[in-house]
Amino acid sequence: MAVHVHNATASCNDDDGKNPMDQMSEMFGPGHVDSCIRQAIQSCWMVLPKARRTADEVEKEIRRLVDRALVNLREDAQAFGRGE
Known about the structure:
Blueprint: H1 20-47, H2 55-79
Helix pairs in contact: 1-2
């Protein structure tokens, strides 16, 4: 299984006094998230065996992956003291 990893680092304030996390949030916005989700759906379609390439199968797999990722997010937040 191939995994794409994206790493980014930012300090709290650059030399110009602007918070890079706020700047990144302004730059990406909800359109970026929408685009990533649509790309994931398309990728899922392409990697499914031809016999399973249906909207129902893609939805099933995408929901399974998202549910698993959200569970991991909550576990990690708790383990690292960043959440609930």
